[in-house]
Amino acid sequence: MDTSKDLKKTDVKADERYLLCEKIQGQYIQVTPLEYDMLKKIALNEYTTLNGAEPDTADQSSCWMDCIVESKSDGAIFISLSKKGLINYFKDKEEPRESICELTNLGLAAYKKITANEKKGKEFI
Fold first, then answer.
1. What is residue 44's three-state secondary structure?
2. How many CB atoms lie within 10 A of CB 56?
3. How many CB atoms lie within 10 A of CB 15?
4. Which of 21, 88, 101, 103 has its CA 20 to 30 A from that of 56?
């Protein structure tokens, strides 16, 4: 599986599998619709310090991980985003319900880019 660090410009092709497929902050990023849904779920979670409002900075997207990862498929998407460097998570080994996650600066930039394209009426780029 390709991660954003392994991608070269020639490997990045816009097609229907990706909502985002371009260079952001010096890295080539590919984001699928399911990954975007998870980024959005983190960014707009009601348990952030902004109570579900759009974050301006990555640290404003911190929320409880158990509100985000609710199934095995969510877990797979979550790990994919983590490997791409789009999210961070901090697991509490003693109390798993206290684990938190947040968008990285790169993740927030990708989320905002796709959201802006959605607002413009572009489905894919």
1. coil
2. 11
3. 8
4. 21
Residue 3 domain flag: no
Burial of 26 (0-12, 13-18, 19+ CB in 10 A): exposed
- Residues 79, 81, 86: CA angle, nearest 5 degrees: 135
Which residues does 11 contact at the CB level (< 8 Å), separation at least 6?
A: 2, 28
E-state strands within 1-125:
20-24, 27-31, 63-64, 87-90, 100-103
Q: How many domains does the chain have?
A: 1
d(CA 125, CA 51): 30
pTM above 0.85, yes or no: no
Question: What confidence score (pLDDT) does residue 98 get?
Answer: 81
Q: What are the backbone angles phi and psi of residue 87, rounded to the nearest 5°?
A: -140, 155
Question: Which residue segment(s) compose the domain that 30 sits in?
Answer: 9-120
**pLDDT confidence bin for 17, thresholds 50/70/90:** confident
CATH of the domain at 20: 1.10.10.10
